Amino acid sequence: MSDSPLSTEFLKTVSHGPGVYQMLGRTEVLYVGKARDLRKRLAQYAHFSGPPHSKTAVMLSHVRRVETILTTTEKEALILEASLIKKHRPRYNVILRDDKNYPLIKVTVKEEWPRIVVTRKRVRDGSKYFGPFSSPSAMRQTLKLLYTLFPLRRCRTVRSRSRPCLNFQMGRCLAPCTDQVDQDSYRDMVRQVLLILEGKNQEVLIRLEEKMREAAADLAFEKAAVLRDQIRALKKTVERQMVVANHFLDQDVFGLARRDASVTIAILFIRGGVLGGSQTFFLADPMGDDQAILAQTITQYYSARRQPPREILLPLALEDAPIINEYLAELRQGPVSLAVPRRGRRMQLMEMAHANARQVFADKSKKKKAWETLAASLQKLLHLNRRPETIWCVDISNLGGKQAVGSLVCFVRGEKHPPGYRHFKIRCKDEPDDYTMMHEVLERRLGRGGKKAICPTSCCSTAARVSST
């Protein structure tokens, strides 16, 4: 049809070169894609003959116009596609809901007196970065161990002082600011910190044991006792670590599982041969085959702030692997290997990642059953006509009735729903009265912020409006 956004007349105007196309509805971007040949790719949509209930057919039924952006190379198209997806978050693209950057441990090796810093941003400043740590508790345990074994400075800058700070008095700093430690000894500690973060704990243990024996031979028993305690703490940490590879490579291992239209992706973080954590994503109804979904996930997941490791293991080969490889190598400023293992230890890692991806479906099923049981129980106990779908929880906080605020959190089908959270300044009371304050919060929330809320004590004449967090 001539009025179709993908009409023959329109396709004749589209270039055969590489670029990005955007499928647009009435007001929003529905889908963003890239192509080596834009006209050929859009022609495939124009002649799509799949079932009318398929996701592609449904998406095309909502398309009102198509926009294209030409690029010089396929890599530029790949980068632009990832940028536009992050900007517009189109309904039919793969969207990683949990796109936060996990924390990294940074060792400022370029400074005169290096220190250990926690950061979420990787900057090209010559420092050594380790992570990401998907588990904050695991990262805190690592930091606690490092601070205990190697009391490096914690202050932002080193300036000359007449007396050391409290950290030195507590044995938590070597006080380079008052020349309490020489440069060589300090640098040796920094090297041991780097070895531990690289997973080379056995080398550190050997060095500490040698120093302990030397201290004992010199009758420096207090120093030997300190080294003994460091060795014990490090050995406990080594026992807890799960070594999954016999090398010191940094790897990310992607696992993918599908159940009907839904897809789950699990990523295992392996640093120095040790499993450091994992992250999972649930994609309810992504468009495209597994290969396209995995490719979009990779290009969205990695960025200048979240750089790829030396090796990435994948469950299947990607059609655009050379371009994606080039893009990732540019982010890392070093070589990146995309591998699809078939046997050996790497294949065992793939199976582990696949099992983690499948577990997401099991966890969601378990949560769903738990919610259905709880909802049925609430319906019975509260004598409701139907099972509840949404639950609000209200809490009041005040200082003797003054500066009172009300907080409301929201759960939908047993899952927290942050868009439903609200925060209110209480206006009707200036003395402790939680029930009246909760009445005000609920009335204002149910009033949807656009209607006057009548104060239950008739002490407030102004219109109360919802104050969103």
Structural account:
There is one protein chain. The protein has helices spanning 8-12, 38-46, 55-62, 74-88, 136-149, 166-169, 183-197, 201-217, 221-240, 290-301, 321-332, 344-381, 434-446; strands at residues 19-24, 29-35, 65-70, 104-107, 116-119, 128-130, 251-259, 262-271, 274-283, 311-313, 337-339, 390-399, 402-412, 415-416, 422-425. The chain is of the alpha+beta class. The chain has 4 domains: 8-88, GIY-YIG endonuclease, CATH 3.40.1440.10; 104-240, no CATH class; 251-362, Nucleotidyltransferase, domain 5, CATH 3.30.420; 390-446, no CATH class. The strands form 4 sheets. The chain has a 5-stranded mixed sheet. Strands 12, 13, 14 and 15 form a 4-stranded antiparallel sheet that branches. A hairpin with a 2-residue loop joins β13 and β14. α4 (74-88) packs across α11 (321-332). The longest helix has 38 residues, at 344-381. The chain is globular. The model is unreliable at 449-469 (pLDDT under 50).
